[in-house]
UniProtKB/TrEMBL annotation:
Annotated organism of origin: Cladophialophora psammophila CBS 110553
InterPro entries for the chain: Tmem135
Keywords associated with the record: Membrane, Transmembrane, Transmembrane helix
Name of protein: Integral membrane protein
TM regions (residue ranges): 68-93, 105-126, 358-377, 397-417
């Protein structure tokens, strides 16, 4: 009797751990937001308790992330055990034999199908609430990427009275995260299984293979960062609002300069022509004590970098160092508290020097990100760019209408090399889903939701099946540690 209860309890442990972790993940940021509200506004005790109750209750609703996480983990642990027990008992019946290899293959197939089904069910559950997507759809327009994409709704266009669209897109960030992790698992699995083949670079060119392994994660981060920064400049609506706000705070750039670069790309800020955009930067010139002519694109070609330096002088190098120092101080305010929190989790005590060194190194990574972006922009538009390409080949208008920003986007992500190699992969796969989400439509017609559902369920099933098969090394980093601690009995 007690043995059956213990078995049932062990089968429920991963499910309960997943629900608890999911509830904490959803509730903690909302509680921090409540603390900020209480510090900013003087709310009555009854109002504060009402807000607290709302946060705790809504996070526990059936169609929220904690329940979906429990369903996914439960479908990957308890359900496969039940199905395998039934099938193996049938296969081992008198007169039937099953080889050990067949049992392993059957178990892997069952794990994948059960994980796929549970992820499919969780996706349906998360998308039951359409109010979130409807509010998002009303608050912004979703432009069509190209002429062939006829299904993305442009919500600024009037719709026929008889048309009542249903929107989808609530889980697009979750799907992008699962897809990027599954893609990483697939690449690592293929590399691991075929690394002993004589035709692979690891056997024929070991140095090249080692270089590829070291550069893979920084390349993923650099490419993802380039997409995100390009979107931040020219399509900020494609980024989550909080993420967009955080980048703007770290970048610390005058919005008038961003607007000028956007107008240059749109063709409304043209060198050599009077397009009535001079007042845009005139106020900035006066604040910095620079001549008003610097703000006139019809007279000054190109706008000097001194204006973009925002008071640090003419030198692009001094401006880059200034950006590095300011960003480093900003980043220390983020990473230092995080390093102090690790003291609570770490079983071994850390010295003050270790904490400071880790925080300073991570802050240098973020500071290098910001500084290299600005310096690459200056190099492209006024220093190296005109020296490599003549003004007839690549005009100042072309540089300021996108090419200089592209240079900054391509350069900034390589600052991740300042981080420890063990952290590069987690940083890379933190930003990769966000970069992918900027390419995908944030809101779309729900009749195409099944496509996202297939990608989501397949990706989740691939990751969980890999872990259940004992190949934890193929699911790298923090995700592997979290899922392994949840899945174990």
């Amino acid at each position: 009797m007690h043995r059956h209860r213990r078995v049932r309890l062990n089968a429920l442990k991963p499910l309960l751990r997943a629900y608890a972790l999911g509830y904490l993940t959803v509730t903690a940021p909302r509680l921090l937001g409540l603390l900020r509200i209480l510090r900013r506004d003087r709310l009555a005790s009854r109002e504060a308790l009402a807000l607290l109750r709302k946060i705790l209750v809504t996070s526990a609703q059936f169609n929220r992330f904690p329940t979906a996480a429990a369903i996914i983990i439960g479908g990957a642990t308890a359900l496969p055990n039940l199905v395998q027990t039934i099938l193996l008992s049938l296969l081992s019946a008198p007169g039937r034999g099953a080889s050990a290899r067949l049992s392993r293959n059957l178990a892997a197939c069952i794990n994948f199908l059960c994980s796929f089904w549970s992820a499919w069910l969780a996706f349906t559950l998360l998308n039951r609430d359409e109010t979130w997507v409807r509010r998002r759809a009303i608050s912004r327009s979703v432009p069509t990427a190209n002429a062939s994409d006829q299904h993305t709704l442009n919500l600024q266009q009037p719709l026929p009275p008889s048309y009542h669209p249903k929107y989808a897109g609530k889980t697009i960030d979750f799907t992008a995260f699962a897809f990027c992790r599954a893609l990483d698992v697939m690449v690592i699995t293929v590399w691991t299984r075929t690394r002993t083949s004589p035709w692979l670079p690891e056997q024929r060119y070991p140095r090249l293979s080692n270089f590829i392994r070291k550069i893979a994660d920084p390349s993923v981060f650099a490419g993802s960062a380039a997409v995100i920064m390009w979107s931040w400049f020219y399509s900020p609506e494609r980024l989550p609002r909080a993420y967009n706000h955080w980048i703007s705070k770290a970048a610390e750039i005058d919005p008038r300069l961003i607007q000028a670069l956007r107008l240059a790309r749109q063709g409304n800020f043209v060198y050599g022509e009077d397009t009535a955009q001079t007042p845009l930067l005139t106020g900035l010139c006066r604040e910095l004590g620079l001549p008003d002519e610097f703000a006139d694109p019809s007279k000054t070609i190109p706008i000097p970098c001194e204006l973009y330096h925002c008071g640090t002088g003419k030198s692009c190098e001094v401006h880059a160092l200034s950006r590095f120092w300011r960003s480093w101080r900003f980043a220390m305010g983020i990473y230092m508290p995080l390093q102090l929190l690790t003291l609570v989790r770490s079983p071994k005590p850390k010295s003050v020097w270790t904490i400071l060194h880790a925080a300073a190194r991570s802050s240098s990574f973020l500071a290098g990100f910001v500084a290299s972006f600005y310096y690459a922009v200056c190099l492209a538009r006024t220093r190296l760019g005109p020296w490599i390409f003549s003004y007839k080949t690549v005009t100042p208008q072309m540089w300021d209408s996108g090419l200089c920003i592209l240079a900054g986007c391509l350069a900034c992500g390589w600052s991740v090399l300042l981080e420890k190699p063990s952290r590069r992969q987690e940083i890379a796969f933190f930003v990769a889903p966000r970069a992918l989400a900027t390419i995908l439509p944030r809101v779309y017609d729900s009749q195409y939701r099944h496509k996202e559902q297939v990608v989501f369920a397949t990706s989740v099933a691939m990751v969980l099946t890999t872990l259940n098969s004992g190949n934890e090394q193929n699911v790298r980093g923090v995700l592997a540690r979290i899922l392994t601690s949840i899945l174990k009995d």
